[in-house]
Amino acid sequence: MSLNTSLLISILMVLVIIRALRRFLDLPTRLPRLNGLLNYIWGPGVVLGLLALALGWKGNQTDQLDELYMLFVLASILVVLARVRHYRPARTLLLALAPYTVYSAIELLLAVTGRELMKQYDDIFETSKGFALIWLVTFIFIARSQKKTLEAERLQREEETKAKERIEAQNLELERLVAERTATLTTQAHELQQALTELRTTQAQLIQAEKMASLGELTAGIAHEIQNPLNFVTNFSDVSSELVGELEEEQQRPDRDAALEAELLADLKQNLQKITHHGQRAASIVRGMLEHSRASSGERQPTDLNTLADEYLRLAYHGLRAKNKAFNATLHTDFDQNLNKVEAVSQDLGRVLLNLFTNAFYAVQKRKEAASEADGYMPTVSVSTRRGPNDTVEVRVRDNGIGMPEGLQQKIFQPFFTTKPTGEGTGLGLSLSYDIVTKGHGGTLAVESKEGEYTEFIISLPA
């Protein structure tokens, strides 16, 4: 084989080896400058080939030039591997090439200086060369396996890094969403707080309006009720004035009748007692009206339920009569005279009773309007007191009015729910009454009704 052909094959082999080495060690990234120098690895081979042609070398001399070039390439590869020895596969390749490089250097040296020695120990050199080649191939496979392992680890680390980045990105997104949600909730909470404040203000206004409405219901009844004691006060005052005049005349007579004077004085004293009684009755009615109109003190005092129920029954009835002169109803009372006084806020319970009586009169009035004269219907409202079970006292308010369907009875104590037409009821009366009885006095307020026949409210209070 000619020199040019031998060197050309060697140069091509070197280029293939260098290309594989570059890819294996990723030299463009790890050693970009040295990688650039490897582009000219073919240069020394060309120079040696031209030198041999110029000197006219042939045979063994050209083989030695070829071996010298390959030794140069091996040395260059060893330098490259030494530069990247921190990379484990590079260290393995360095270990793989070391025996073969040493053998090549010895073979070249003996070829130049002692070829007879190589012929004498040809078997030993062939064995050593085979061992060096086996060593080289074995460690190349080991390096390749190491590279695959490292590549797998690198890919795993990259996946872990990407996963970590995705998690961090998700965490940032979640933090952003949480921040936005928190801001939204804070805004909503502020808006709800404002709405709650406005609702409480509106509720207070509605409660006050309901109280004033009940006060209006009382006004006409109070005017009628207070008229009776005032008439008695006026009449007994007139009679007392006449008695005083008769007494003065009797005292001016020369023959005074002591028995007549004593009788006149006794009558006068009796009239004054009646004036005091009816004056106190008028004052009681006025006091009740004032208590009903102002805010409750919340202080419980011994309260006579019989007196309270009777008083508010008549006030409610006369209040309705003042608005509708044609309305008449039978009032029926059945009070337990042995009923003990209960600890209660009388003005609050008065509001409850007034609301129940007003509703009862409304119910019987509606039934009366719908009934014909042939029916013989008589509106009747009853109130009774008695001892209840478990050491309680009960106040029952019953009417024979229009009644309620069973479905409505479950909603009757809900705020703003009313069976009355629009404009005739706010739906707060029974709701407030329920709160006063249950929350304010620890009792119960229940309803029993049958549509078209009757309705009965039962107030149960601790005795």
TrEMBL record:
The family database entries (CDD domains) matched by this protein are listed as:
HisKA
The record's annotation in PANTHER family points to: SENSOR HISTIDINE KINASE, TWO-COMPONENT SENSOR PPRA
* Coiled-coil ranges (or none): 150-212
Q: Histidine kinase domain: which residues? A: 221-463
Kindly indicate whether the keyword Kinase belongs to this entry.
Answer: yes
- State the Pfam families in the record: HATPase_c, HisKA
Which principal EC class is assigned to this enzyme? transferase
Q: What is its EC number?
A: 2.7.13.3
Q: Which GO MF terms does the UniProt record name?
A: phosphorelay sensor kinase activity
Catalysed reactions, semicolon-separated? ATP + protein L-histidine = ADP + protein N-phospho-L-histidine
Q: Please give the superkingdom of this protein's source.
A: Bacteria
Q: What is this protein called?
A: histidine kinase
* TM ranges: 6-25, 37-56, 68-85, 92-112, 124-143
* UniProt entry keywords in alphabetical sequence: Coiled coil, Kinase, Membrane, Phosphoprotein, Transferase, Transmembrane, Transmembrane helix
Protein's organism: Hymenobacter psychrotolerans DSM 18569
